[in-house]
Design brief:
The chain has nine helices and 50 strands. By secondary structure, the chain is mainly beta. Pfam families: DUF4982, Glyco_hydro2_C5, Glyco_hydro_2, Glyco_hydro_2_C, Glyco_hydro_2_N.
């Protein structure tokens, strides 16, 4: 039987907040996000150092220019890209380089630029990258002029459409760093920490550091790795000019604390290069100690069997667009964790560093995916145009950057590749897996999708990965297990409404180690997937026809504002013991129109007992329960009771004639009421209520605060049908970053100060400025009592290299 075992690795020292993000010595790595200028124009002269950019807009990174406009039905990105504009733009930044950097190595490190970037320093091209989801370094050593002002200019070309099947965003949408070191230095992405032994008494950690000699003479050095009292010192190493070498130490940690999804404990190690006994370069790595193994007997985390309850996620941050603010990236992980997920598939590209750092810190498993496709195109200008030239560099960038994250349990080489029936695809798949395994020993997977009658033809392709991913095809598991008994399977995409079936398949069959629903959170682009529609509206799926005015997907368990849909509570109840009772109401068919469901849709179901003009007509109420018996009451009158079990799919449905009042569900075990849930008919909208997800931010133009906006009646009940026009105002030490709702057909711009509520809710996002002090948030609407909130902007200790 094939068994794949891997031991824990490290994570980069990136925290959820900006302050904790830069744990590397500030003499080595400097956040480079502030004081940029931006212009949405194609001007080739913008690369020159003396170009006049005084009229350009001042911005702070990360930045997505597409989200700053409203969807346009004629936009070249079309239905796939959410109808958002793309194009060509330039970024410029003037900055000082101290004389002390003379003779050092200098890089600019871009975590992500979408796409086709070209980077110039003082007019000299120093690099760039075509693939918008890869991180990359630009060696600026020969272009930087220490002791004077320097200019970096970045051209971003996202004009070739269509190049993506979802909303990509446009611009320098992730962080940028300036890195400088001596010419005898630790290689970028050059520290790897692996746990080679783990018991309750002792863990053995191997630290491998790649050191590079870019001086003109022979060098003798040693490397010290240390965490707490555990310390490893290498012997003396000699390097010739231009030579690089791996240096390894072993650390022994007594009574180790283990990284797990429930207790994600992290250590920090310092790695120092010494020359003539003096430190010349150093970096910090935070690492987690854990083991993982996969077999047809299941997935084991630290020797404990874990069923993978996963969700797929695209990279955008909803109403913020693609801009990968650290706080927004962490919030996605927090939303998934609170919804009961224990794993995320990063569909269909490597995620941001902040996202992975949050997974490490919060305790979320990750399948890190490289590409959507390979050589054959899904869209005219997609990765197929780059694959043969760039696949190796992009695979290496993903694995080298991410291999130190304990949250990552597998690498995915692709998704639903078009050329799956061509014989050469087997060789391609093998090369991708071999390249990954040169750099890391975790398993590979790929997401296969085919509705052919000759499914077995894919067996040679499936054999090239360690875990076979099934997109919407896990019903083939039994036949495949009989035919290929050593195959480890997981469902890499599944329909949301198949939650119960998919849970039972994973629960009952150890060789099916998990399921990843499409998707965890609603996202921009792939417009209309997951929607329901009424007779008279444009029918069908997003891949069949344009579905304007839809500009986003509605297939997530969580909507664009972060609100958990009833399907989220149902899935959580199936997989976990945390949530045991939930009450929801199914929208009556015909109430707004006859309901039609797409493949990824679930029946519209709401936390609402407001159905005006439906009095006396039947309506279905659902109770999801882990308790064996449930009862339903309306205004204290017993409607009925029902047994709940696996045979009833852990839910009960009651049909009642609607009348306003209060619904109450009871979960009963051994004759005792264990838990209750209620829904009360809300009165007329009376006021606005603000719910601050975080009451403080860090000054410095990079932190965010999320504010839930609710329309409530005089008793504080959310008015679930309210679609009032809201006006937002942010003053003081912050600005309005985004304002919007979860309605995927609302084409108002997310940077507008006015927006409708949808289902009684909206979301407002505040961005910090350079100031400290109070940020005042105000939301008002005609005829409603306004609401105000205070957010404290605190000192940000992160250093930026600026003017």
């Amino acid at each position: 039987m094939f068994i794949f075992r891997i031991f824990a690795t490290t994570i980069l020292a990136l925290g959820v907040s900006i302050t904790s993000m830069a744990k590397e010595p500030l003499t080595r790595k400097i956040l480079f996000n502030t004081d940029w200028r931006f212009s949405l124009r194609a001007d080739s002269n913008a690369s020159t150092p003396y170009y006049n950019d005084a009229s350009w807009r001042e911005i702070c990174l990360p930045h997505d220019w597409s989200i700053e406009s409203r969807p346009d039905r004629l936009a070249p990105a079309g239905n796939d890209g959410g109808y958002y504009p793309t194009g060509i733009a330039w970024y410029r930044k003037t900055f000082n380089v101290p004389s002390s950097m003379k003779g050092e190595k200098v890089w600019l490190y871009f975590e992500g630029v979408y796409m086709n970037s070209s980077v110039y320093i003082n007019g000299k091209m120093v690099g760039g990258h075509p693939y918008g989801y890869s991180s990359f370094y630009c060696d600026a050593t020969d272009a930087i002029e220490p002791g004077r002002r320097n200019v970096v200019a970045v051209k971003v070309d996202n004009s070739h459409q269509k190049n993506c099947r979802w909303y990509s965003g446009s611009g320098i949408y992730r962080n940028v760093w300036l890195i400088h070191t001596p010419k005898l230095h630790i290689e970028n992405w050059g520290v790897v920490v692996r746990t080679t032994k783990m018991t309750s008494m002792e863990a053995v950690v191997k630290v491998t550091t790649t050191v590079v000699n870019e001086t003109a003479r022979d060098q003798k050095l040693s490397v010290v790795a240390q965490t707490g009292s555990a310390k490893g010192i290498s012997g003396e190493v000699a390097l010739k000019p231009g030579e690089r070498r791996d240096v390894t130490q072993q650390l022994i940690i007594t009574h180790p604390k283990i990284w797990d999804v429930t207790t994600p404990y992290l250590y920090t190690a310092k790695v120092t290069v010494l020359s003539d006994g003096k430190p010349v370069d150093a970096t910090y790595q935070t690492f987690g100690i854990r083991t993982i193994s996969f077999s047809t007997n299941g997935f084991l985390l630290n020797g404990r069997k874990v069923k993978i309850n996963g969700g797929c996620l695209h990279h955008d941050n909803g109403i913020l667009g693609a801009a990968a603010f650290d706080r927004a990236e962490a919030r996605k992980v927090e939303l998934m964790k609170s919804a009961g997920f224990n794993a995320i598939r990063t569909s269909h590209n490597p995620p941001s560093e902040a996202f992975l750092a949050a997974c490490d810190k919060i305790g979320m498993l990750v399948v890190d995916e490289a590409f959507d496709g390979w050589r054959e195109a899904k869209n005219t200008h997609d990765y197929s145009t780059l694959f043969d030239k760039w696949w190796k560099q992009d695979i290496d960038a993903m694995v080298l950057r991410d291999r130190n994250h304990p949250s990552i349990i597998a690498w995915s080489t692709g998704n639903e590749v078009i050329e799956r029936k061509k014989i050469e695809i087997v060789t391609t798949a093998r090369k991708l897996t071999e390249e990954i395994h040169k750099l890391d020993n975790r398993p590979t997977t790929t997401a296969l999708a085919a509705w052919d009658s000759d499914w077995e033809i894919y067996d040679p392709l499936a054999a090239q990965v360690n875990i076979v991913g099934y997109n919407y095809l896990i019903q083939k598991h039994a036949a495949d297990h009989q035919r290929v008994p050593n195959r480890i399977m997981w469902q890499t995409e599944s329909f949301p409404r198949d939650a119960f079936r998919n849970w039972t398949i994973v629960h009952d069959n150890d060789y099916v180690i998990g399921d990843f629903v499409w998707t965890g959170i609603d996202y921009l682009g792939e417009s209309g997937i997951g929607r329901y529609w009424y007779d008279g509206q444009v029918p069908g799926e997003s891949y069949q026809r344009p579905l304007w005015p839809c500009h986003a997907a509605y297939c997530g368990d969580i909507d664009l504002t972060g609100w958990r849909k009833p399907i989220s509570h149902y899935r959580d109840l199936l997989w976990n013991d945390k949530e045991k009772l939930y009450l929801a109401v199914k929208e009556p068919d015909g109430y707004y129109g006859k309901i039609n469901l797409g493949l990824w849709a679930v029946w519209p179901t709401w936390e609402s007992w407001n159905w005006p003009h439906h009095e006396g007509k039947p309506i279905d109420i659902e109770i999801y329960s882990r308790y064996p018996l449930v009862r339903l009451y309306l205004d204290g009158r017993l409607i009925g009771e029902k047994q709940v079990s696996r045979a009833t799919e852990m839910k009960a449905t009651f049909t009642v004639n609607y009348s306003p009042g209060t619904l109450r569900a009871e979960g009963i075990s051994n004759g005792k009421v264990m838990e209750t849930r209620t829904l009360t008919t809300a009165g007329k909208p009376a006021a606005i209520r603000l719910q601050l997800e975080n009451s403080s931010i860090e000054a410095g133009e990079g932190d965010l605060a999320f504010v839930q906006v609710e329309i409530v009646d005089k008793d504080g009940n959310i008015c679930p049908n309210a679609d009032t026009m809201l006006t937002a105002k942010v003053s003081g030490a912050g600005t309005l970053a985004a304002f919007g709702n979860a309605d995927i057909t609302d084409t108002n711009a997310y940077n507008a100060t006015t927006h409708k509520a949808w289902k009684g809710r909206a979301l407002l996002v505040v961005k910090s400025s350079k100031k400290t002090g109070k940020v005042t948030v105000s939301v008002s609407a005609k005829g409603l009592k306004a609401a105000n909130g205070i957010i404290k902007a605190e000192k940000n200790e992160q250093t930026n290299l600026s003017l």
